[in-house]
Write a structure and sequence with these properties.
CATH class: Mainly Beta
Order of helices and strands: EHEEEEHEEEE
Oligomer: single chain
Distance between the termini: 16 Å
Shape: globular
Strand order of the largest sheet: 3-2-5-4
Number of helices: 2
Number of strands: 9
Largest sheet: 4 strands, mixed
């Protein structure tokens, strides 16, 4: 089981953590939401939890809680810029369907 960050995503997270002045990594998870059932959640981690799985990718620690891991296993988080839009892109091989707006998914 693994969750990874692309080089661009890792650099973006590392830069933000440096500007923030604290934090040990990025937490990825899922929550029930949206028209397709689940949505991603991202937050910076200051303290790890006992049930966290920790992965290191391109020099950045990625924390995933035990409940979210089966939905995120094999996922790569990328950071893209398309025209005026930029942001994280979730390349998740487990997704079977997602809503039209891209905010939620199901597996």
């Amino acid at each position: 089981m693994a969750v990874t960050l692309s080089e661009k995503a890792a650099q973006h997270v590392a830069n933000f953590l440096a500007k923030r002045g604290k934090g040990i990594g990025l937490r990825l998870g899922v929550r029930t939401s949206g028209c397709s059932g689940m949505a991603y959640k991202l937050e910076f981690v200051d303290d790890s939890s006992e049930d966290d799985q920790v992965f290191e990718s391109n020099g950045v620690k990625v924390f995933v809680d035990a409940k979210s891991l089966p939905y995120l296993d094999g996922m790569e988080l990328d950071y893209t810029r398309e025209g005026l839009n930029e942001g994280f892109k979730f390349n998740n091989p487990n997704v079977k369907d997602q809503c039209g707006c891209g905010e939620s998914f199901n597996v």
